[in-house]
Amino acid sequence: MSKLDTSSTLQRLQNRYRLVVMNDDTYEEVVTFKLSRLSVYIAMSTIFVLLISFTIALIVFTPLKYYIPGYGSRQSKTELQLLKIRTDSLEQSIKYKDQYLNNIKKILNGDTPDKLDTTIYTMPNAEATKE
Predict the structure, then answer these.
(1) What pLDDT was estimated at residue 72?
(2) How confident is the model at residue 1, as a pLDDT?
(3) Is the pLDDT of residue 98 over 80?
(4) d(CA 8, CA 16)
């Protein structure tokens, strides 16, 4: 047998092969394909590109895009910001009311300091305000 020169890559890609699908019981040939490595690479690349294109089209043109984290409509982002602002203001309001109630409980229990510091308040003069 003569040895084929398959050293070049292009030659190996163009070599023809036969793929035969046979019935195992009767050994009858069901389908025969003549393939080369190049045709298999091209077919696999085409299928890969088509699957990627189909997936991207499915995400872009259907409501599936809203399930992607970080992707949403401008309206939902605006509503989320408003809800965050409301939540922050409600938390601050609850904190102030809790502080107020704690101070009232201290006063009712008699836990007031002996001397109140009034130096931080500046009272305007009655004469200075008339002028």
Answers:
(1) 74
(2) 45
(3) yes
(4) 15
29 three-state secondary structure: strand
Which amino acid makes up residue 48?
A: F
Tokens read off for 103: 């101070």
What sign for the dihedral angle of Cα 25, 31, 34, 35?
negative
Percentage with pLDDT > 70 across the chain: 81
Residues 47, 31, 25, CA angle at the centre, nearest 5°?
125
List the domain boundaries for the chain.
9-67, 75-111
pLDDT tens figures, 12-49:
888 899 999 999 999 999 999 999 999 999 999 999 99
Q: What are phi and psi of 39, to 5 degrees?
A: -65, -35
Amino acid present at 76: S
For the chain, state the CA radius of gyration. Answer: 41
Distance of alpha carbon 31 from alpha carbon 21, whole angstroms: 5
Per-residue pLDDT at 34: 94
How far apart (Å, rounded) are the C-alpha atoms in residues 44 and 51?
11
Q: Which of 103, 100, 121, 123 is nearest to 111 (CA)?
A: 103
